[in-house]
Design goal:
The complex is a heterodimer of chains A (301) and B (287). Chain A is an all-alpha fold. In chain A, 76% of the residues lie in helices and 0% in strands. With 287 residues, chain B is mostly helical. The termini of chain B are far apart. Classes of the chains: A mainly alpha (301), B mainly alpha (287). Chains A and B meet through α2, α4, α5, α6 and α8 of A and α1, α3, α4, α5 and α6 of B.
């Protein structure tokens, strides 16, 4: 047993008996672990991803193109983009405001507020959709008012946007809060002392510091906004060409046994997912570079 | 004007904008999240106690709880095991395509759930890429509870890997060397030195995967078959009640699910707090 001590380096006969690094696994164990990991990875991640594109193109490119460019699919794409264009900026502004309040000031109840901001992540998407149906739906408390003024919230664009805002609510804030907390507020305070206005402090000092973190949050927020299914499904009413987003279009085509149409729409969403992953990696790298540069500055100072 | 007096509940600061940003944060949070969630409780309370109990504990509902929580637990356990191996392999070993594997781990976060649903249903169907190998063995995956298990494993996969990776990366190799010097075998080092250090992170990842699986809807409904009492998850049951315009019944089920989610959230936060405290405690006392 004890022949594997560090001392053994000085004893030539012991080194021959045991060359292996004691903090490493034997090559066979390594190979098996890598094999198991890769098999699991292939089975659950690579195979589904490949299957999207293979099935979408299974009946040839013409059928694929037709599945993408028919009126229903196009209007679903337009609606999905429109919802993201409204919902993402809303949560972006909120995320910046919330992280300014939380990371730059000390007040009571801060941890409660931070937990509440994360709350939508632990609510089932179906329940998120349900909440808006309960408020604005036919049995809701303000239905008579909405009906009298001919305002449509659920089964229309406003409901879809609300449900999307709910499920993507924490993305920007939860990226920015820890980032801004780690950066501290000395630079902002210095700018303030030197006579900068609040808005100048934010745009000239804070924004350059947090831009990559902000971008990271926006990328994740946008991916979820365009891909949300459960919450949107509950408030959509599934009106073809009107309240169908792309993920809902996938469902309808699939249930109608239009396999190519369903997978063609799915392939667009899968490409969006891949683009998201690539952009996310890029933002992560920029964020790490920024952090390293700031650390260097701090050391020099 | 705002610099005249600071309220007792916050410390003075040289920076402006607290009132504006705080006010906006609280107002937006209340309007978009808190009031809507409160509405679920208000609607559920429109039921009297007896009908509430019936709504949340009829045999069909109880069967859906068993299915949802049982399979979420099973999927989270599978993810804990394979997530550990994946994180270990990604942190410790080098192999071709490692960066590609690392980047693609987050796919279940980025892929819309309806896409995941139809794709998994297609692959695990009796004539699908994977399903056809199980068909001769008499094992059906898609359109059975086993299919739900597959979908829940898929969507929970990144959680364990992503919570374990940073902890494994920061783990000091010196501790393993010390264990080896003291005569521990590699297995003993793994069991008594490495595993206890990463256990909180593993549990956090497990809890996150479990919480996500419990509320999952999109990826499951395509592969589940959705047979009442057999393969019907609780989220689907809420949707079914909504389609029958039983809003109060749906709200009652949502209240039960929300309460369970809150308990899970509390558990995850406690775990993370424990993780941080242990981590910083070790830093302070060690080295």
């Amino acid at each position: 047993m004890s022949d594997s001590l560090a001392l053994s380096r000085t004893l030539p006969q012991a080194t021959k008996a045991r060359k292996a690094d004691p903090t490493d696994e034997p090559a066979l164990v390594k190979a098996i672990l890598i094999g198991v990991a890769l098999l699991f990875f292939a089975l659950f991640l690579v195979l589904p991803l490949a299957s999207v594109f293979v099935t979408a193109l299974g009946k040839g490119f013409a059928a694929y193109w037709d599945g993408l460019t028919n009126d229903d699919a196009l209007s679903a794409i337009r609606l999905t983009v429109l919802i993201a264009v409204i919902a993402v900026p809303l949560n972006l502004v909120f995320g910046v405001a919330a992280s300014w309040a939380i990371a730059r000031f000390d007040f009571k109840g801060k941890s409660v507020l931070t937990t509440l901001i994360d709350l939508p992540f632990s609510v089932s998407p179906v329940i998120a959709g349900l909440t808006f149906l309960l408020i604005f739906g036919r049995q809701g408390p303000i239905w008579d008012f909405l009906d009298a003024h001919n305002l449509k919230i659920v089964f229309a664009l406003p409901g879809l946007v609300l449900a999307t805002v709910f499920v993507t609510f924490p993305f920007v804030a939860r990226e920015l809060i820890p980032l801004m907390q780690a950066q501290g507020s000395e630079e902002e305070e210095a700018a303030r002392v030197l006579g900068a206005s609040g808005w100048q402090v934010f745009t000239r000092v804070t924004l350059p510091k947090i831009k990559w973190g902000l971008l990271y949050g926006v990328i994740l927020c946008n991916a979820r906004a365009m891909g949300e299914f459960g919450a949107v499904s509950v408030v959509s009413g599934h009106i073809r060409g009107e309240t169908n987003t792309l993920p809902l279009h996938v469902e309808i085509e699939y249930n109608d046994y239009h396999t190519v149409g369903a997978f063609a729409a799915a392939s667009i969403l899968a490409l969006l997912a891949l683009a998201t992953l690539a952009l996310k990696l890029w933002a992560e790298r920029k964020l790490a570079q920024d952090k390293a540069a700031r650390r260097e500055d701090a050391v020099q100072a | 004007m705002s610099t005249a007096l600071f309220p007792l509940w916050r410390k003075p600061s040289a920076l402006p904008g607290f009132g504006l940003t705080m006010g906006y944060t609280v107002a937006y949070l209340s309007l978009v999240v808190l009031v809507p969630l409160l509405m679920v409780f208000i609607k559920a309370s429109s039921l009297d106690w007896a009908s509430f109990v019936t709504a949340v504990s009829s045999p069909r509902v109880l069967a859906s709880y068993r299915l949802t929580f049982g399979l979420s637990l099973a999927a989270a356990i599978l993810n804990a095991v394979f997530g550990f191996i994946l994180a270990w392999v990604l942190v410790r070993y080098t192999f071709p395509g490692k960066r590609f594997v690392d980047a693609l781990i987050d796919l279940p976060f980025a892929l819309p759930t309806s896409v995941a649903g139809i794709v998994l249903a297609a692959i695990y169907a009796p004539n699908g890429w994977v399903g056809r190998w199980f068909e001769p063995l008499g094992i059906k995956i898609a359109f059975t509870p086993l299919g739900i298990f597959v979908a829940l494993t898929f969507i929970g996969l990144p959680f364990v890997v992503r919570t374990l990776q940073p902890v494994l990366e920061e783990f000091e190799r010196e501790q393993e060397e010390a264990a080896a010097c003291l005569g521990a075998t590699r297995w003993q080092t793994l069991r008594h030195v490495i595993f206890p250090a990463v256990l909180p992170a593993l549990l956090t990842g497990f809890a996150l995967a479990f919480a996500r699986a419990v509320g999952e809807y999109g990826s499951v409904i395509f592969i589940a078959g959705n047979i009442p009492m057999v393969s019907e998850i609780t989220s689907l049951l809420i949707v079914t009640k909504l389609e029958q315009f039983d809003y109060a019944g749906a709200a009652a089920l949502a209240v039960v699910m929300l309460m369970i989610s809150f308990v899970l959230l509390l558990l995850i936060n406690t775990l993370q707090w424990w993780l941080q405290r242990r981590h910083s405690g070790r830093r302070a006392s060690g080295a």
